[in-house]
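Page 47, continued from p. 46.
Same chain as before, 297 aa.
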Amino acid sequence: MALLAAGCQGSGPPRAAAGAVRTSGCPRCGGAVRLGALPRGDADECSGVVAGAVHPETLYLHNDSGDRPRFFAIGLDGAPRGEIEVAGARAVDWEGAARGPCSAGGGSCLLFGDIGDNDRERDGYALYEVREPPALGGARRAAAAEVLSLAYPDGSHNAETLLVHPVTGAITVVTKVKKKKDSAGIYELSTRPAAGQTATLAGAGSIAAPVGSRLFTGGDVRPDGAGVLLRTYSHVFFYPMAPDQTVAQALAGPPCEMPAADEDQGEAIAWLPGGWDYVTIGEGDEAPIHRVSCQAP
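Result:
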């Protein structure tokens, strides 16, 4: 298995120079280890994954475009734990999953981003907020969704990276560039839109992967807010985040280069609760699930 070496540790300038990576202050990690694989069946094009808070060692994932509005629950080894239809949702091009505080009523919610737009021609985008299922297993279940309508301030964009701050609930989207030399855009929304209204994301800077592929395909904010993972088709990066920083501010600094498994069309990445480990999954039938175990910086 081809692995990309872990990097780094320390504090850097407010905005990373092209090609800059941290050399100190980074998590200390081992190599990527295969835990299992996605179950044979309908979960065959994993485009987003997030770890749950309600059910231990449970991952929630969804397919890429072409599927209906639903998501799957699996164990860390890939064992199926449930399938949930999202009522009130559409599935144009789901391209990101995250977890954060619910918009109303407290508790933990999953968010699924219908933010893909390969042709950059859509007028609007949506997030679907769903409370974590109180029970799993058995027959297919249904969950009601809160629809959050989004637009960009500067036209249409393709994106596959959805990030939610675990404390404030602020939403960050990192776009997927069209040209290999372009920098990706960072867009943020500090407050959720009211029902029936469309919220316009605010531009919050740009970002370029310091090495490897320039295409950001997924990410996740640590459950304690201590940092952000971003992945590309070739690499995984960790951006430390201070308690008073927004996600966009954290992404302005130089990242640590983290271990990455050699995955086919790798788009999904998620922190695991209770430590510094993370999982990654590529697309395809029975795609492998990889875990990287790390210690705090």
